[in-house]
């Protein structure tokens, strides 16, 4: 299925540019290139260079499209942002992460990320390694229940896991529709409420792509490569991710160093990696109206000592 890049909107773009603050001559990393929205905006904001990272091979046509415009100001390196220090050996002025599945991946129904489109249970961002179907059809019941509960925060994880086990004894579970129907047999759908399959699908996607582990490594790697005064900006979409980002910043900024982006600059503190970090920043009401996928987004940033 071809990708219409024009229909995809980078979440919280004004806030990302404000907090990343691109400058002429700087080097910035877009650690989650996706459809290139942040990359293009950064390159338009300043006469700088962007190193773009992504593990999804489907982004390559968009990379080439932007390289035709920006030339050697845009360099693409294939890989997961968890391998940040292996992919980026330069000292950089800033990095931005947009965590989780992209709109592009959700809209490609054949990738199996969305329960709204029937497709093979895949969910692999890199299109290599174990699939969601592998997990569903092979994991023991107790481990499957724990996975759904821990990564999806699904209260009915044990009932869902038991139903999956009973179903797979009769037939291998292969499609998003089959899995969604199993979940609906446990949790009834109701109008104007979150779809009951959302949490289980989230849990599987996180497990397939080791998203939380990669996030931890990516934040650490980016921090290592930041210059003094360099900026690390993260946009995330659910509590598990946000908890990791908030804790990472808090543990590395020192005591009483959370500040508003409008606050007076605090005094410097020894042994802190970051001299300041923000509280959560949210999308505008106008953006949420125009792009419903931004409604759960939070942005946090930190500035290195």
Compact overview of the structure:
With 305 residues, the chain is an alpha/beta fold. Helices cover 42% and strands 15% of the residues.
Topology:
Elements: H1 13-20, E1 27-30, H2 37-45, E2 49-54, H3 60-70, E3 74-78, H4 84-87, E4 92-98, H5 103-107, H6 132-138, H7 141-152, H8 157-170, H9 176-186, H10 198-209, H11 211-225, E5 226-236, H12 239-253, E6 258-259, E7 274-278, H13 285-290, E8 298-304
Parallel strand pairs: 1-2, 1-4, 2-3, 4-5, 6-7
Antiparallel strand pairs: 5-8, 7-8
Helix pairs in contact: 7-8, 7-10, 8-9, 11-12
The helix-strand sequence is: HEHEHEHEHHHHHHHEHEEHE
* Overall form: elongated
Structural class: alpha/beta
Query: What is CATH's topology name of the largest domain?
Result: Rossmann fold
Domain unit count? 2
Helical content stands at: 40-55%
Mean pLDDT metric: 89
N→C terminal distance: 45 Å
Q: Write out the strand line-up for the largest beta sheet, numbering strands in chain order.
A: 3-2-1-4-5-8-7-6
Runs in which pLDDT lies below 50 for 5 or more consecutive residues are: 1-7, 105-109
- Specify the CATH architecture of the largest domain: 3-Layer(aba) Sandwich
């Amino acid at each position: 299925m071809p990708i219409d890049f024009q229909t995809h909107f980078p979440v919280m773009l004004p806030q990302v540019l404000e907090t990343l603050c691109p400058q002429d001559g700087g080097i910035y990393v877009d650690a989650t290139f996706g459809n290139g929205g942040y990359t293009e905006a950064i390159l338009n904001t300043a006469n700088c260079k962007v190193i773009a990272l992504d593990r999804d091979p489907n982004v390559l046509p968009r990379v080439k499209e932007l390289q035709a415009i920006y030339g050697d100001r845009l360099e693409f390196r294939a890989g997961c942002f968890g391998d940040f220090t292996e992919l980026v050996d330069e000292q950089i002025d800033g990095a931005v992460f947009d965590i989780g599945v992209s709109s592009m991946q959700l809209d490609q129904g054949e990738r199996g990320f969305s329960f709204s489109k029937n497709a093979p249970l895949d969910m692999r961002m890199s299109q290599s390694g174990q699939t969601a179907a592998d997990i569903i059809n092979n994991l023991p019941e107790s481990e499957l229940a724990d996975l759904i509960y821990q990564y999806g925060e699904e209260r009915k994880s044990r009932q869902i896991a038991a139903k999956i086990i009973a179903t797979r004894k009769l037939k291998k579970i292969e499609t998003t529709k089959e899995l969604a129907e199993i979940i609906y047999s446990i949790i009834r759908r109701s109008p104007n409420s979150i779809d009951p399959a959302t949490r289980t699908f989230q849990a599987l996607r996180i497990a397939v792509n080791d998203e939380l582990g990669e996030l931890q490594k990516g934040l650490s790697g980016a921090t290592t490569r930041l210059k003094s005064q360099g900026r690390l900006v993260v946009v995330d979409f659910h509590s598990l991710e946000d908890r990791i980002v908030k804790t990472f910043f808090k543990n590395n900024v020192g005591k009483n160093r959370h500040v508003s982006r409008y606050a007076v600059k605090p005094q410097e503190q020894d042994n802190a990696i970051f001299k300041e970090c923000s509280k959560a920043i949210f999308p505008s009401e106008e953006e949420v109206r125009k792009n419903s996928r931004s409604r759960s987004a939070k942005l946090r940033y930190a500035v290195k000592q």
